[in-house]
Protein 1
Amino acid sequence: MPKIQRHDLDGCDEDIAKLYLKTTANQIKKMAAALRSKSLAKIPPVAHKLSGLSGFLELKAMAKLLRELEKAAFRDEPKEAGRLLGLIEEEFSQIQRHRTSGSGRTAKLQTESPSPVSKKRFKIFLVDDHPLLREGLVRLISLQPDLKICGEAATAHQALKIIPVLKPDVVILDITLARSDGMDLIKDMKLRSLKSLILVLSMHDELLYAERALRAGAKGYLMKLEPPKEVLKAIRRILAGEIYVSEKMAAKMLHKIAAGQANGKALPEGSLSDRELQVFQLIGRGRGTRQIAEELNISAKTVESYRAHIKIKMNLKNAHELTQHAVHWVESSHLN
């Protein structure tokens, strides 16, 4: 079996390395406390975020362990979660021990070849609710001779206030944002005729979300587990007027066209509307009706209506089947 381990932050920007180590140490303590108090439901959101950050920094072993911990906590398996958390603590200790101040990766990123364009530096705007990821992207993009960061936001509401003023060439956004939704932001930007090109950078499985994002108006979709050089490649590709998706996703879309399945509904979840899919995902993450209503800023009655529609569309008999199916889907959506 090929080794995928990487235990160091060699070549990573020094400030980013320090911030990652501090953030991860604190979050591991939180997950350990949740495990001790038998509050496993608190672990998946933390593990999910840390997995994305670790993947972005190419700490593949750490990212893989965190995804496995997320799934074990969803399944309410305290013994397995404890075992995985122990492995994560060991892996984190290795990362701390192997940390150096080398500049290998920074130099590599600096020499990524931009497209042969003029001296203009294209403006990039970031929308993500995690400060560490934004900081990493700022440092990555600022090293490029043809790109520059013009601003950033943590929520869709903030973004819609700033983007019309700054007029960025590209907006990089996540689907899941604090008390808001990236898919809604894409649609709002399209409704307001904002000219910025949109690249989605997310932990969500591209096999389900990429086509939805492209239909909503995005020009590219990239998962956070991809290496930083792919982010630069995606930015430059959409600036050149092309669409960016992974090779795997492009092949899937071509197969669907060849098979005459242009509507994207081969999977049961594909029949859900964007809002129904949001509700379905939150059910799978253990949220109750009231919590979903608060997160999506809708009424509890509306949430119940969505739940009813989902059951009909997915041929589910009752609330128990709905929850069971949603939890299974959320778990399996991170296997790819």
Protein 2
Amino acid sequence: MGTYVGFSVTVLLAMVLLFPGDLPFSKKRTYLMLGANCGGLLLTFARGPWLAVGITVALLVTWVVIRLPLRNAVAVLANLGLVLVLLTVVGTGALLSRPPLAGMVVNRFAGLSALEVGTAADRIQLWQNMWEDWKQAPWLGHGAHDYAKFRNDPATQISENFLLELLHSAGLVGFGVFCFVIAKILILGSWLFSSAESMHRMPWGLPILAGFVAMCVSSLTNPGMTGGFYWVGMALLVCAQQLCAPGMGRAFPQPSARKVGVHW
């Protein structure tokens, strides 16, 4: 669940930062949705989605600094600072009103680097076993769910790392095909959505790309890729790429009255 909430947080945050004047909803509703999703992400107590959103936002900020003119980059960074301050103030107030919940959140943050306790230690041990076992059949793998032999309850336990599971199950052949498709989608999206024309024509393309990257990163620590929402997010990204492809602008014109937040 945290992986999918992280997708929503990343998409909404990217829309607020890049296109504050071209939001699909009113500003009040958008900020309410962003706050609600951030609260939901916090209450998942899942370290993977937390780190995935943080890494993706850092990559987005880096892209902004590199690609946008200095004035626009400063404006985006100022918006980010304002959003973070607002979320921090509201979140702190909500936690202070519920001390038990605040204690749980603080303890969870304090344990971000504690890999020797809780489920993290079990997952790391499983991944090490899967990695060593994969070396016995590197090209074609061992077949679906073969890693269950390393778990106490093979019927219900999952690997919590889809890419490693795919490598162990399908070998380098299946792993390579899957990674090639994902990499092609991500690279094509970053190329299509990074131009000034595409950002004006398809303002939600880059936010969806950022959200999908967050889901991919988060899925390295949980079974997010096995859920339907991951593949729906990929389908949305591919649709955005098709609509933003060269030559599609005439078929999908943008209303002249729309205001785009990032001016080039």
